[in-house]
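Lab meeting minutes (informal)
Scribe: AK
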Amino acid sequence: MMSNFRKLGVGLLGLGLFISAAASAQTLERIKKADTIKLGFIDRAAPYSSLGADGKPVGYAIEVCQVVVDAVRVKLSQPGLNVRYVALKAEEAEETVSQGGVDLLCTATVETLKRRERMSYSVPIVSGGIGVLLRVDAAQSLRDVLSGKPARSGPVWRGTVNGGLSNHTYAVRAGTATEAWVREQTRRLGVTVNAITVDDYGKGIELVRARQADAFFGERALLKDYVQRNKLGGEVLVLERRFAAEPLGLAMARNEDDLRLLVDGALSRLLRSPDFAKLYERHFGPLDEASRLIYTGFALP
């Protein structure tokens, strides 16, 4: 009896592997048959992705995805492969990707265990991190605390419980890894705060400008880009401190092993190439030596 159960288990395992491999092959076959690759992107997520003045998607992740497209064209021997961009709302991106509505999400997002239940991720394409935006006239005590300066005594977070973090209103984008991080920090430290969730960065920053929130936590690169693009430097500022590192990658449906291998190969070559520094500089500024080593480390050998 036990032997039969073992045989059944091996058989089911083999069937599962077969189905997984078949699903993986189907995406590239579908792309080849349709002569089109569908790339999803989230608008208003600059510098990673957004709609340009001409109505076409632009941004760092969009350019990175073009490298992937070139690799797919070579793999499928289809140099004229068409590219179809699909604009997605942030709240619908995960569902669309997981259901195969797009072949690749060309907006850099954080890989989490929860997201991995439905999607696969490429190697990281950017070293992101949680930042915070304040008004330029914010209380010095709050600025000091959020900049990491010890308040009174003890470790930064623990020592600031009574020195600036409590009794404030913080805004954060709903459903993000940043929201989970903010809530965990406030829970762990026992601080009393009012957390407001918003559905895009513009709304969160407007809350700070209107003095309805004392600070807005979010992806630091997105905060800085928004301030620069909208010329808000005289009203708000993004602190230099990065609260947590967040490697961001490109998402695709689960069990897409062949596609993921192709994507990771293209990205790894890009991250090691001399052209990467130029691409990075166009969107984030000069690539220093320490950062260069980080990105080289993201590449697979």
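Next up, CB showed the second protein from the same session:
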Amino acid sequence: MINEMYKDMTGKGSVIREFFTYANKKAAEIGAENIYNFSIGNPSVPTPKEFTDGLIKMLETKNPVALHGYSPSLGIDSTREAVAVSLNKRFGMNYTKDEIFMTTGAAGAIAHAIRCVVKDGDEVITFAPYFPEYVPYVTGTGAKLTIVPADIDTFQINFEEFEKALNPNVQAVLINSPNNPSGIVYSTDTIKKLAAILVKKQEEYGHDIYLISDEPYREIVFTGTDAPFVSAFYDNSICCYSFSKSVSLPGERIGYVAVNPACKDAKLIVLMCGQISRFTGHNCPPSLIQLGIENILYTTSDLSVYEKNKEILYKELTRIGYHVVEPGGTFYMFPRTPISDANEFCWKAAKEYNLIIVPGDSFNCPGHFRISYCVTTDMVEKSIPLFEKLYNSYN
């Protein structure tokens, strides 16, 4: 008999993908140039030349049997060592390769990290708005995901509600900064306050509470934004990183788990990740791509277009009348909808104005919509009159 849980999930697909599919279908009818597709976070700038050149050089000069062979279960040693050194140089940490586990993007990193520190019946807390895939990442372990409501005026952590949610069953807290979908970056003060609460609660409950930090947008931070390295402020922290956004490699599925060396079981957690892979069929990202990212640990793609697009959208949408909390990073913006039903608003935008935006309900923040502005600046500028017509249709 088939698994009923996964059967039920087939009827509850991603809202993001639903709007993305609609956009592609509509583009085939009227031309892609007539669709303003802000639905999905697919980077719009090329990967650094160093990455491509490095791959070409390896393909031309290295033994193909060795180059395309299986990597060790924890990842290639030289890659793990290079990642550790880069984190130490950039953030003043003291990682070794033994605290690094190579993964298939941040999704693979989070899935492994959660399985390391929770079991059936445990509880994980996260903060709205959050990436919808956190639900299967957590519930797939048998744990419960508890959502702290958003502070919609700042999108910083709602500490009052967080402290209400804390209880002895909580084993981990999952955060995402810079944040998808709001674009907000948790400040140093926010992270320090969060860490202090967790230290106190660990003592009160008599067990560790792990801070799992989802950081695929860590390098996309705008001028003047305070963007702390989360693991520097809390010992029991696990960083989950992806190269998908910073160097435009979403299709290559490459990332890592970095367990804070100050964590009591840091090296053991990495070894556990290798065992978890046996249950999930993860079996490491491709050897070629692991070796390739060694060349780009200190660089990024040209990310400047994202800040330029943000400036245009924030200025123009607030002028029109939308309420927007200004993003500090990423390539997302999360305005309020002028009506309470964000789904109705977003479908009207799509069907009447060819504006493809995503309702905030799936991020557990109704009354908002996400704009993914990893697109050309020309498209952003041409979309402004449509956003204005859409807003004025309600006002």
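CB comment: The domain at 70-296 is CATH 3.40.640.10 (Aspartate Aminotransferase; domain 2).
No objections, moving on.
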